[in-house]
Structure formats: C-alpha cells, structure tokens
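Why does this matter for the project? Reviewers at the last site visit asked to see concrete outputs rather than summary tables. In response, this paragraph embeds two records directly. Each consists of the residue sequence and, immediately after it, the corresponding structure tokens. Nothing has been edited or filtered.
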Amino acid sequence: MLRSLRNLRRLMAIARSFAHYDALFLLDLHPAGVAGARIARLIWRPRKDVKGLRPGQRLALALTALGPTFIKFGQALSTRADLLGEHVAADLTRLQDRLPPFPFAHAKATIEADFGVPLTNLYKSFDEIAVAAASIAQVHFAVDTEGREVAVKVLRPGVKAAFARDIDVLLWLAELAEYHEPRLQRLKPVEVVRTFADSVRIEMDLRFEAAAAQELAENFAGDPTFKVPGVDWQRTSERVLTLERVSGARVDDHAAVAALGIDSVAVVRTAAEVFFKMVFRHGFFHADMHPGNLFVAENGVLIGMDFGIMGRVDALTQKTLGEMLLGFLTRDYRRVAEVHVRAGYVPADKSVDAFAQACRSIAEPILGKPIAEISIARLLGQLFQITEAFEMQTQPQLLLLQKSMLLAEGVGRTLAPQVNMWEMAQPLIENWMRERLGPEGQIADAVGTAIDTLRKLPHIIDRVDAVTIDMARGGLRLHPDTARAIRGEENGKRRVPWMLWAPWLLAAALLAALVFR
C-alpha cells in the first residue's frame, strides 16, 4: 500500500510533465489510458512553445524535464520501435543527455570523500568549470601530481537515490501492464525495466566504466584505427573516474574535421570498420557512440569516450546477426526467415515462407532506395514492428545493438551523407561469414563442440558412478513412464533402446579424445 501511494504521487509529477509538453499521446494508445489522458489535459495545459513539434520531440522534452532516470529511460526506449513506432523511436535517439552542471564544491567533496585526502594531493590543478555535464555525471579537466593532463568524471550528487525512486515507479507500472494486459508479456516490459535498471546501476559505478574502457583498449591494442584513453586506476573510485586527456575534433563537426585535412568519407569508412570489429571480432561494443562520444585525431584515428553503456554479443548471436544482415543485403529473404526460426527468435511452428514474405514487405521499400539512403538499423526497427504477428520474443541484445547502429548511422550521415557505411561494411561481413560458415569455420565449430563435450565427460562419468552405486545398494525407483522409455516403448510402439547406441557414443567420445589430445 505504501509503495502504491508513493508511486502514485510520483506518477502525478510524471503526468504533469507529460501534459505540459503535450506528450500524453502514449496513453491514447490504450482504451484504459484515454480517460486518464483526458483528465490530465483538463488539469494541466500544454505549453505554447511545444506546438508544431513532433510527438517524439515532445516526449523527449518531457523525459528531459523529469530528470536523469527518465533521460536514460528515453534513450532505452529509442530502441523500441515495436512499442512506440519508428518515428517516435527515431526522435528519442536524439534525446539530449545534457543537464546544468552541479557546483564545483560538490565535485570536490565527492573526490575527497572517496579518496580520503585533499584534492591537491591528487591533482596539481583542477578546472572548476565542468566541460561537460550529463544525466549521471560531469567532467572536469585537470593535471595530476605527475604533470599529466587528465579528464576527471564525477558522479552527480543524489543521482542514485533519484534513480532508485524512479525505477520503482517504472517497475510498478510494468508489473501492472503485464498483469492487466497479458498480450504485452511477449514484449517483456518488466524484464526491459530490470535490464535498464541493471545497466544504469553499472553505469553509476565508475569503476565498471574504467574496466570497460580498459577491456576495449586491449581489444584494439596495436590497431591504428581506434584509440581508447588510458585509465588512471589510482585516481578512480566508485564515484570518480580519471582518464588520459585526449584531443580531437568532434566527428560531427565538419569544419573541424576538414581543418585537420582528413577526408570525411575515410572517417566514415573507419567508423564502419571499427563498429564491425567491435561486434563481429570482439563481441564487445560501445553502445552509446553518439557524436559527443566520438572524436577524430589529427592522424585520422577515431577516439572513443564515455564507456558507461557497453554491449556484448556472443558467438552464436554474431553468427545469427551476420547471416541476417547478409540475407537482407543480398535480398535472400528466405534465408533471413530461416535464421530467425533457427535462432529461436520466431517459434518453429510459424511458417518460414510467411515470415520471409513479411521480411520482403519491409525490406524492399528500404533497399529500393539509393544506397546512400539505406538504413539497416531502421530496417531492423521495422522488423520488430511485425513481431507480434509471429510471436517473436524480444531480444535485448539485438535491441541494444540496433540502438548502436542507429547512432553509428547518424554519425555517418552527418559526416558524409553521400555514402552508406553498411555498404562499406558489407565486404567485411561477407569475408567474416565465409570464415565462419566455410569449411574452416565448420571444422572449428565442430572441434569446439567436441572439446566442450570432452570437458563434460568427467561429470557424466561421475553421474554414471553415482547411479551404479545406487543400484548396488538396492536399485533405482523409476517412474513408469521412464521405465517404458528405457524399454523403448512410446505411444504403444517399440523404439530402439538408447542402450544399444550409447556404446557407439562412448566410442566416438574416446576417439575424439585421441584425436584432439
């Protein structure tokens, strides 16, 4: 009861913000919300300065006004074209993650509290004016006691408490939605909120960001295309992150990039290669690569910043995504459909031909455009819109990847609108797929499977020993269905008992052990 009252009070503040920015259209999407939206509009009138703005733009303003948690949640929603529609999701990708800076005194107090020493013991000089202020933290330039130029990120005071309060509201609403609307369970609103909460909790511990930066740097060690600032672990804590200070032009600053004498098309090509390596080579990608987090150095090297939001792609998802993208790029829609079914994204009882037809219906209008206008990320977004008809389950790792692709596309179109970065990446994907799906890749997969099976063999033998001991002590009690299965009976028919082919499996395992030892 107390939780409901507390959340209802916060919900009133949310409704007021949505009404002021004329963003109550979300409630109009459901009959139960129409009455609530009507009442809110009677109580709070929209601001005059929001007239003429698109729904997604108004929603972005309302979320920004509600503070850090809702700014972050809006960024997460930007991946959910299946929930909000393509145009609203696209507007949310431009959600400004900028807030007024908090006073230097608070930053100083946080640093001194975390390290237990005066600020001057850590930094020879420290700029009091923040160079960037976002929803979670802000950044100051400084010089450490060894004379190295650094950038110091400090967590915003009170952000954890505000985040915990708002997450409880969002989780409460998601639980109500699932309870009253079972059809929404496929979209997993509760899981989406919990996943979002986990990601932001990690983002609010700057030690995790430091670890992500270092892992990404190790992945690109010796690679001349991408640089990650070094981490100063001695001046990094839960609320403070100190990184090597780097300089370069913002990737979307045409004049600054041109002043460096660097070809914009070459920058887009490099960005496509870097993104490909992150996703398909390393399986660890920067999931917030907007223009403010990507710079171009004098030598043309891309510099990444802000590693609070990262994504991971396992080997199976890499393979699935590669086949999916290649299928779309080559207009092999049946292959796209088969990949979805094989990966379990679409239930096996759904028609592959029907799903292939649906894929064709959304891809052809996009792929029929000039190559520079093709948006693979938008294609994936539209794909999510047809998921309900095929009972396709939400795939969080693909949603985060789609968001990253949208951001990367935005960078490419801003810098060199005449080219398409996915066209540049297509040869990389094709070569990678040949490696993974060709004879060498299949042999490697088979060897990996065999080795994994051999690792499990001792556990299997232990279980067999345990069963043998139980049988020696008085036998095993089996369920009648289990007994019938062992005898090879199923639905009144005799089948070949598994004991007849089990020795051959054991022989194959022993042979594999001899081959791969």
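We now turn to the second protein, recorded in exactly the same manner.
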Amino acid sequence: MKKKKTKRPVSALTGIILSIFTENPFKAYNYKQVGHLIGLKDKAGRDLLLKIIDELVQNESLNEIKRGKYMLNPEKVQELSSIKKHIVGTVDMLKTKKAYIIPEDGGEDVYIATNNLGHSLHEDKVKVLIFPKRKGHKPEGQIVEVLERTKDTYVGVLEMSKNFGFVIADNQSMPYDIFVPINKTNKALNGQKVIVKITEWPEHSNNPFGEITEVLGTPGNNDVEMKSILADYDFPLSFPVDVEKDADRIPTKISSSEIKKRRDFRKTWTLTIDPLDAKDFDDAISLVKLESGNYEVGIHIADVSHYVTPGTALDDEALKRATSIYLVDRVIPMLPEVLSNQVCSLRPNEDKLTFSAVFIMNNKAEVLEQWFGKTIINSDRRFTYEEAQEIIESGAGEYSEEINILHALATLLRKKRFNNGSINFNSEEVKFKLDEKGKPIETYIKEQKEANHLVEEFMLLANKRVAEKIGKQKENKQPKTFVYRIHDEPNPEKLNTFVQFLKKLGYNLNVSSRQTLASSYNNLFEKIHGKGEETMIETIAVRTMAKAIYSTDNIGHYGLAFPFYTHFTSPIRRYPDLMVHRLLEKYLEGGKSANKDVYEEMCKHSSEMEKRATQAERDSIKYKQVEFLLDKKGKVFDGVISGVSKWGIFVQLVVSKSEGLIRFNELKDDYYYLDEDNYRIIGRQSGNIYRLGDKVNVLVKDVDMEKRQLDFAIID
C-alpha cells in the first residue's frame, strides 16, 4: 500500500524556497536544482514550484538572470545584510570540506557548510555572512570574500595521468587535490613528493590549479619527509647566498677596543649547562662568593646584537625566520651556522661577547642589587644536563661546590615562584635514538630534573628583571616601547568546561581567586602524577590557557605570575630576544622610545612564526612515533585510554607516547555505545566499561605512514 504524500501548504513552501535563495544570496539556481533540494520530483510538484518561483519574480524577491536561472534580488541581499551580520575571521578547515570560522573579535565559532566555503582554505582570513540563528543550532554562515590567503604552497604526492596530474597534499587541513597541467610539473615523476604553488582557482572549478616549484624526492625517505614538514610550514630549507656572505664577513676576532668598552668577567668562574647534542650555547652563569657572605650571580647571554645589525641581509633573514626550528633529527637555525654554532655560541675556553644581567643575592635568594650591561666572558666548563644532575645528586665532582650553591639558590627561587602563584605545568618530551638512515630504533621520555630547573630559574630571573627595568613606570612617566612576553588569563568558558570535566573524574579546581586557582592547578598535577588520566588532563589544562605571545602592550604573564616578563636569554634562536637586546642597550644609554607600531608588527610576526615552528616540531615527532611502530605490526604494548569519541577509543602507548585508535567494530565482545558526558564507552549486553585513563593492552593492527595514523586492537 502506497503511503499518502503529505501536502505542504503553499505559503510554507514559498518560505522554504525563498530561504534557499537567502541562505545562498550569490548563487543562481534553476527550478530543477531547487526541486532536488526540497524533494519535489513529480510533475505536480514541479508545476507548483514553477508557479511559486514565478510569483517570487513578480514580487521582485527573485531575478531571472538568464532563461531558467534565478538569483535573489540584489536589493534583498542588501536588506538581508542590514539584518544579518557580517564578521571577519579565520578559517579552521576540516578534512570533510566543512569548516568553522574563528571570529577576529571573539565570540562563538561559526559553522560553514561545504557549499558555502567559496574558494577559501585553512587559516585564510575571510568575510562571513551570518545566517539567522536556528533554535538549538550553532551559528552558521557563508564565506562571501577571501580577504587574505594565508598559504598558497603545499607539500604532497604527485599522481600523474597522461596529460595532467593532481597533487594530494600531506596537510590534513587541505581537503582539495591541486590540479597541475602537464607543462607545469617541473619534470616530477608519478609518486614523488613535491612542493606545489597554487596559481589560480577558476570560478567554476572544484579544484585549485597549481605548478610544481620543487621536487623533494621519494616518500618515506627520512630526509625527504623532514624537508616536507619544513616546506609545508613555509620554512626555507637553506640560507640565501647574500645572507651567507654577510655571515662569512663577520670578524671572529674580538678587538682590544671592544673589550675596553665592556665589563670583564673572563677571570670569573663561569659555566654553561645545555643538552648533550646542543651546539648553540645562548647562556652562561657565573658565580662569585663575596666577603659579605652574599653571592654575585651573572647571567651572561650571547651578544648577537653586536654581530647582527638592522638593515643587513642577515638581520632581514633572521626576522623572516624569527626562530630556530628543532625537528627530531635536525635544527634549522635562525642564524647561519658560523654565527649560531661558532661566533656567538658561548663555547668553553674562548673569549665571547655577552650581554649580562648581574645580581647580588643573599643566601635566601633575595636580589639586593642588579646591573645590566655589555660584558666579555670565558666559560670554564661546558656541562651537559646529565653531568650537572649527577653532581647535584652526589654532591661531588668538578666544580661541585659552585654548582650546588647555584642549585640551592635556584631551589629557593623556584619555591618562591610557586608560592606567588606560578603554575607548574609538567611537560614530557619524547626523544628518539635514530639509526644512520634516521629511522627510530628507540624512544624515551626526557625528564626535567634539578639541573634543568637550575638553568630555568636563573633565566626566568633575568627575563623578569629586564622587563621590570624598562616596563615599571617611574614618576608617572609613560614606559618606553618594549617587547614583552605576555600570557592572558584563562578563557572563562573553557575554564568552566574544564572544571565540569574534572568533577566527572573525581577532581576539583578552586576558581575563587587567581591565587587559589594557581595553587589548585599545582595540587591537581601532583594528584594525577603517574595515573592513567595524567596526560589527558594536562593536555586539556593547557588548552584552557591562553597562548603566550609577544607584544609591546604589557598585561603580565599569568602562568608565571609575573607582572613584567620578557625574553632576553636566547637571541641565537629567537628574534624577540634580539629585539629586547637592542632596546635595552638603547635605553641604558639614555635613548628615546622606539617606534611602537614597528615593534608591535615584529611581535605579531614572531608569535606567528613561533606557532608554526611548534607545529612543525610536533609533526616531526608524530611522524617518528608512527615510523617507530612500522615494523611492530602484530606486537602488543601497554597503553592508556587517552580519549573517547564517536569513532572509538584512543589509546596512548606507554613506550612511545604514540596515540592510535581502536574502532568500535574492533571491539568484538559486545556492542559498545559512547557515554560522552562521562568520557567512557559501555557494552550494551555486558555492561563492560572502558573509560578515560584506563590501562589496556593493545595490538598494533595497522600503521599508515601517509596519513600518520595508527590503528590498534584491544587485547584482554
């Protein structure tokens, strides 16, 4: 028996038809397309549809732009624009060709359906028309203009046909394959990894057009994959010739006239403590025990600003890069090697030019006096963190007395910092041992120990005191333009969501004041240490926080609980530190305030490049984590449930911190459903529960190097 068709009132149908045109005011439809969208396919329905469209043309709601093609009347578009709001924001593209817009001025993210994306791409700055909000739905809209294309080059694999090719991008946020004509392939071969530049995107084409600018090589080769990561974030793979020439012209010998201008620390006991594989030694620490019983502690930083001067090709390139990038197997330096690893690097038993912060401290680690200025040092010894740690733990070894005095002072500084509201975010660093071809043969977690804390506390002290020196107002005078490292308070909505999340896991967070929140965070991190849910909670905790950035407008550093903070201690690898050195020298000599707008622009650029470098570093770690398991398919590992989703449960391996997915259809013992509110899945028949933080044994089922994805199966 046939079902009776529901008859729609004409007036309602008119409204639905009009809404199709108003939701897509710049798109033309014929009556068949409209009929398909609303499900009117029979002759009677089509006749009715044509009648309504004709009425809408008569009352000037629609225009027939060419025979059988209709579009919303431009006057109606203007009318809608006055009712509907336009916003400017950044595109957050999904693999599914849907997107969310992150508004420039804050507020809720705006959902953009696939057919409303225009020709926008991930991280483009766009103008969006907001649709009237539907009850129970998130804000939705349509991208009406791409204001700024953030990225136009991509790394991917070329798939060739006879007369053309397509580049399938590595970047998961690039859902479109890029069409490449046969004469634009740059002799690349099918299956090779390439860099492609988008040259145009014709209005009626589903895919952008491009040309191959560089052939990287065969996928899977370690060097090719690391270069691919760098190229995907638009980091240069080498220095331009004029920059190398600039660097080679720098004199390596220090003149006697330059030494006379500086405070001489060459006979003062000084050391550096760095990672085993480091070559760019930015900082050194000196110690003198004074007759008064107090200590003179010097924090000596490589004087890069003496060698790298504004207006040179060397400085322009350093600003463009803004940071060094640390991938798993290599460093892409901000400065050429002759500077970063030789001339500026504070190598032992060599005279080196430095910019120093010198403090007279008592045995309670209170600063009694301070001095900032240009210096020259000669480091007595280069320690690795492991060597310094052994001396701290044993109390014996070369320069053990000096190292343990510094350790005692740093411990007091650290304790005071946390008592004042600094938040102790724990971070685990995944490290790899690689074979000669760059393949990971072992993975381990690098721990932060007392030797790391020793260096960290004195660097924090120098950064804080330099910022205070310039930033603190004197006699109601406006502070001079300066570069600060700022960290805003947590987003209240994100913080509230985090509090609710913790309650379901049996933890509390006291948000009644800034001090209690910081203390509560630190107590939480102590409670979860070593537990299955530790990684997940710490990850979400970090996401509740704003991102630290560079700015000329100081709002303090929330996470450190410092009213004034900057970056002064790493000018070899961070351009903002070089800016700080130049400004500090200028102001110590009585110079006028620098141009705020110029420095703010450099701050924004540096923050963006830092973000990109962090993403590239994470991508290289993720690649090696997946590669580490490539020859371990079928093996079983200990893991912890690190996430739950509608696709299944995510498990992080204890051995490598690699994260993989166990799909619901791999759970053979029962039909499981997601209890999203309580971060768990439940077996319908058995009542068996897998929850966030549970320890599980998993089998490595599949390793997809191309997508950098792992599939696991649970073993009971």
